[in-house]
Structures
1.
Amino acid sequence: DVKVTQSSRYLVKRTGEKVFLECVQDMDHENMFWYRQDPGLGLRLIYFSYDVKMKEKGDIPEGYSVSREKKERFSLILESASTNQTSMYLCAGTGVDTEAFFGQGTRLTVV
Amino acid sequence: AQSVSQHNHHVILSEAASLELGCNYSYGGTVNLFWYVQYPGQHLQLLLKYFSGDPLVKGIKGFEAEFIKSKFSFNLRKPSVQWSDTAEYFCAVNERAAGNKLTFGGGTRVLVKP
């Protein structure tokens, strides 16, 4: 069974904190993605990576950064958390010509 | 930039009615196409996918989708819905020449009344 694992299901952080969301995949897939999901807005792509140390901005990268030092791990970083970053965050991985496999999601609340 | 549009945000229909959800994308290159479903309180699940070949794709739970390249469309259909099809449906497009960027539409919430 392929697996994408996100380190936390629920997180509560304070405004201004630096927040790390971790994602690990065991599929040896090249491509990894971070999305946020908000009601009525679907899944919006924050950043993606098609190889180790490679990263590309998605549609809403402002306020976020990412790190991919190893193929299996893709981290999302909120440099200084704000309340408008309260959301469900989803990590996904894909290979060549495969569908995306998703983690269980991290519900982040910034207070 | 690639965009994926789902025409309807909300759809309400009765059991046994037919369902068609529209999806259009803007990218002109080679794409892979997907429909995902998210049942209330659950994670995203793959309904079907298109990579190449027959543009009429059959998926799980009686769903099918047709890729019309000239219209940049990948519409989802089901001839007869059930109450259990109540969910949110997402179209997604993978740009193969852009690092496999995977972009989702805004989703369509479907409510099937018993």
Note: The mean pLDDT of chain A is 93.
2.
Amino acid sequence: GENVEQHPSTLSVQEGDSAVIKCTYSDSASNYFPWYKQELGKGPQLIIDIRSNVGEKKDQRIAVTLNKTAKHFSLHITETQPEDSAVYFCAADDNTDKLIFGTGTRLQVFP
Amino acid sequence: DADVTQTPRNRITKTGKRIMLECSQTKGHDRMYWYRQDPGLGLRLIYYSFDVKDINKGEISDGYSVSRQAQAKFSLSLESAIPNQTALYFCATSDVAGTSTDTQYFGPGTRLTVL
């Protein structure tokens, strides 16, 4: 079955710097790759997703890239702000409409 | 009002007790899920239901059971709670998007502590 690995587990950046979180997946049949943000005391919330027919997608300061050949995808946050501090999860579908989640990255943005 | 609600938000119980966690949604989605979150382990699927008559085991279903009372309600039960079931539990819903996986919407979570 699908397995998703996520790195790093923690990431600290200075406000204004960029942050990159990377994930790899094992099932070449996967074709949907969402990213979720979990703020303290709340449930995860979708921030961006990408499907296998595109290589990159942007939404303001966040972007996701997908390399299907290498089976990895990444989240890029530019011009980080303190409110970007949260836990981020990547996920991949397992071809039966379920999501397999990575282990999460705790991002801290220092002013 | 929140689209996905979970009750209770916090619960402390003792080993061997039966516990029910409830989830309700107003999004009109057919698909509902129960996940468990542990530090360093991410979100792991316990059970899922693609419609009222459909119940499926997830990755870590041992020690848990579920009931889909209606399209809007999906409950998770721990028949005899044990300390290693101490965790944060999330309910989620999603719509059917043709043959494609779609966005999952999460509730606020239930923090369960088993002493």
Note: Chain B has a mean pLDDT of 93.
3.
Amino acid sequence: GQNIDQPTEMTATEGAIVQINCTYQTSGFNGLFWYQQHAGEAPTFLSYNVLDGLEEKGRFSSFLSRSKGYSYLLLKELQMKDSASYLCAVSRFTSGTYKYIFGTGTRLKVLA
Amino acid sequence: EAQVTQNPRYLITVTGKKLTVTCSQNMNHEYMSWYRQDPGLGLRQIYYSMNVEVTDKGDVPEGYKVSRKEKRNFPLILESPSPNQTSLYFCASSSGTGSSPLHFGNGTRLTVT
């Protein structure tokens, strides 16, 4: 079956670095997305990985290992505004179409 | 501005009273989808559409209908809402290549009493 696991909640201090992990099991893998979602708001796109390795985008980086079914989102120089949920999502190709499957999200609290 | 527009933002209704949540995108996206988000369950797909007049069930389609008569619009219809459909709903669109991200509307918080 299809499955995505990520921690429910994490806490970190302003200015620190935090790593949010995501493991997945799926067939027809076509890439992995990370989204940020503030409470009561829409998810917004952060990153996309389809090849193994690290993609860096400012304070945020995302890593993928397809052989291990593993990804992480790295947030550096944490700011209070980074307090949000972070959603891991997998794109898979099945039955002639693409489907996006979401994990339940990791709620990150940044403390002063 | 590229966007997905959902209406209404908040809706309170009673069991059995038909309702429609509208969704429109201005990015000429082929792929559109509806999700519901519940605490502890994450985003679950209700229905999706790969193009005009092409729709298919997601993971939790029971109690919902959709239509895709035009490329930009993808309304979600609840013919007879029930309390277990109380949730936060999101419409999303993408170019449909599988490598392009979903663009989400601002959400509709539905309460069915």
Note: Chain A has a mean pLDDT of 95.
4.
Amino acid sequence: AQRVTQPEKLLSVFKGAPVELKCNYSYSGSPELFWYVQYSRQRLQLLLRHISRESIKGFTADLNKGETSFHLKKPFAQEEDSAMYYCALLVGTYKYIFGTGTRLKVLA
Amino acid sequence: GAGVSQSPSNKVTEKGKDVELRCDPISGHTALYWYRQSLGQGLEFLIYFQGNSAPDKSGLPSDRFSAERTGGSVSTLTIQRTQQEDSAVYLCASSPTGDRGYTFGSGTRLTVV
């Protein structure tokens, strides 16, 4: 079955603390994974994709095929990182399966 | 346009009425997608357009749901005889051919009372 699991609905961390938003997937093919972010009163937007191996706003995510995970990490959280984060698995060439999202709250 | 535009941003309708939701994608984006997000759920795929054709309608939940796209641009999602379970945020996204990253609209919040 194709599935994306984000086990935490809410994650609260203090400013300056490390952040890890968990994402696990189930997919029989070669996975292509993404993180999308929705800041308050803004639209959902692409944060990063694993094939780019990029760091955006200090966030990184590494695909671990052995653990079927694609966790999003940032070493030092900022208040402006507070948002809803969605992990997404591309199925085929155009369709996403999204996780249910994790709300990140960064406390001052 | 500069981004993906959706209208209306909010729609309250009575059970049994028909509604039309509109999406205006980024100019030149050949691919267009509709998703919906029900309360506490992840985004659920509805339909995919490539140009004016819809090669994948597998996510439409019932025959009350239909969508079309004209001129390779604007798309309309129509829900007939709305039910309370249709209440959700309906999101439209577009992308250029070959790009897997979507640009989303701000969504239409549909409430069926």
Note: The radius of gyration of chain B is 13 Å.
